[in-house]
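Hey, I'm writing a tutorial for new members on how sequence and structure tokens pair up, and I'd like a real worked example in the thread rather than a made-up one. If someone can provide the structure for the chain below, I'll link this post from the tutorial.
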Amino acid sequence: MTIRDDHDLAADLATAAGESLLKLRADLGFEHPPALRAEGDRASHVFLMESLARLRPSDSVLSEEATREERENPRRQQAQRVWIVDPLDGTREFAEEGRADWAVHVALWERGSLVAGAVALPAQGRCLGTAAPVPLRRFEGGRFRIAVSRTRPPEFVQKLAYLLGADLVPIGSAGAKIAAVLTGEVEAYVHAGGQYEWDSAAPVAVAQAAGAHASRIDGSELTYNQVDPTLPDILVSLPELAPSLLAGIRDLHR
């Protein structure tokens, strides 16, 4: 096994899971969104778990769709290699016809760090991964854009945008928001409403490989494979905007 194998495996699994989700969408249609969401979560989870059990039998896995007992398994917390996956990030968007802002996340955490990852955006026909980091563009000045939830933009981020003279751009899943930072649709993503490790592990791995800034909103490091998989907040941005974003956040918390 090589490091390159892990990068490629993350991309291959995320892409394959995404292709199966596109087929599921076509087969089931959009008449019953709850059923489509449930089957999408289930089928993608089973595919990823079975694939990793076969291809990386010695590694542990943390999945959004795992049971509470599986998440709390001491083997994961003691493991040196843990795959952190979100089989379907953005179930709401997945079950809405015409929406493309949903994703599949596959990341590898090893000995304290994210070392590989991929974010498949199946309905957009692309996969961003650490195997081939995205060329990050530079911010040329002027107003910048912050990705926010399309259904519940947090008041905190609205205040931050007003303070910094930024525009808010509603986007669906967390993976789609961070991907938008890397592809130039927005310049930053700020979230302070709580998430889980699987919501950001793969997107953060991809963002860091591209040279983007990724941290907690107080500037501290994002940590993964914790006993409690919750993450209270996150900031991902073009690196040159991080100082002003962090300063603005500090001002709002005074």
